[in-house]
Design goal:
This protein has 79 residues and is an alpha+beta fold. It has three helices and four strands, in the order E-H-E-H-E-E-H. The radius of gyration is 12 Å and the shape is globular.
């Protein structure tokens, strides 16, 4: 399962979500600006308060890092 922690104004979050959609990777989005509990969960999992943070089956990726994301997903980069 892939979970993307986001905020509505984060351009890197939008890029990460677009990247996943283009590759048809299903994900659940968690908007940390809408819930204090979501923010606490983000900090607990990653030690971070910034977004995006992407959780790929428990592997935490801070920021939109395509090479790390591709490795975590087990896919080859299309770029």
């Amino acid at each position: 399962m892939v979970v993307v922690y986001t905020t509505p104004t984060c351009p890197h979050c939008k890029s990460a979500k677009r990247y996943l959609k283009e590759r048809r990777i299903p994900f659940r989005e968690v908007d940390v600006s809408r819930s204090e509990e979501a923010g606490r969960s983000l900090k607990r999992k990653s030690g971070q308060t910034g977004v995006p943070v992407i959780d790929v089956n428990g592997q935490i990726i801070v920021g939109f890092n395509r090479p790390k994301l591709d490795r975590a997903l087990g896919i080859r980069s299309l770029d």
